[in-house]
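Re: Re: token formats

Sure, here are both.
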Amino acid sequence: MMPVNTPKVLVKPAGQRQYEWVDLWESYTMQKVVFIKQAITEDVANNMIALTLYLDSLDKKRIYYWLNCPGGEVVPTLALYDTMQYVRSKTATVCYGMCLGMGGFLLTAGGEKVRMRDYLTLVVSESTGQPYDRVIRELSRNKWMDPKQAIEYGMIDKVLTTPMPRMPNQTKFNFSRTQDESVGL
């Protein structure tokens, strides 16, 4: 299996004239966005504490913590929580996925808690035309819909029963060529 490399993005660092290619995660850090996407161990907490203190020293803009955390160790999580309360920068926490155990505790550390479930409910309600309260009930459990029910609910517009037409400039490839034939791409 081929390894998946972290994408690079083009950014213009503050105070610089030139753009440069940086690691995607580094670009988020430059914007004071921190991802915690693993269980909180002593090493993870120490790295996050150091990063939090560094980001706080840059300016007083809000630090955002995006959490997808299956839990972790109590003492390291408490140390990170205390640090998030100590810094002068305001903090916001966002759960994208799961925040179990100590991850759920850490989610409460942000001064501003962005609730993805509330946002998701609002988007589904607006997109489907369903009442907000109904969407809350529907999302609280697995709901299976056949195509007709999905149309009635407003989740989809129609069911395609034939293949989609080819796009106007789409090339048709002939994969039955022999190895001797070259394909100019």
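Second one below.
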Amino acid sequence: MDSAGGGGDERSGAFEGDDASGGGQQQQQTRSFSFKVVLLGEGCVGKTSLVLRYVEDKFNERHISTVQASFLQKKINVSGNRVTQAIWDTAGQEKFHALGPIYYRHSNGAILVYDITDKDSFEKVKIWVKELKKMLGNEICLCIAGNKSDLERERTVSTEEAESYAAMVGATHFYTSAKLNHNIEELFLHLTEQMITSSLGTERKQTGRRNVVVVEQEQPPSPRPTSKGCCG
């Protein structure tokens, strides 16, 4: 998926916008959701830059390595629903890899980030996807972000390979650039819409199970054998 997007700040804990989906159609009942989102990927792929651009609309040309993990929060409105996003930005260095499960446990959604100019970072995404599915199952909502799309001429990961892999694992693929503020709003909005849909689906299943009444059909009594005298 590929389109330009703008950013926005979180101010005074208020929910941003009347309708972040842009459709302008309010649902009949306003719902509130709280989702945990984790960003995973190798170091230097731009995870922190993506989050800072999305939450604070800031971009730092200098790379600052994330130590272990950092946490940011953003509140938005999506189709009349109030959504609080708890976003965890994890460290990508190999020495912190073992700590990953601590941060993505109980996550509702994940963004797997790679650098389009670094083939190895794309291969590492595949490892993260396997780990996520092993721990959280197929219920977790996934997006894959091919970051640094402003460096298209230096690309080493083909669009065909990236998008084919994303489709295979049930993820949606986006090309993003924190530097140009490209496609970041769309990325987070799409993931949020997925999480809302998944949450409502789970809720309906649970409600359905509570409302199911199991009725055991009584079996008709077996006829008693007719006793016969010795004379028949």
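Helices lie at 47-56, 100-104, 119-136, 159-168, 184-211. The domain at 32-202 is CATH 3.40.50.300 (Rossmann fold).
- S.
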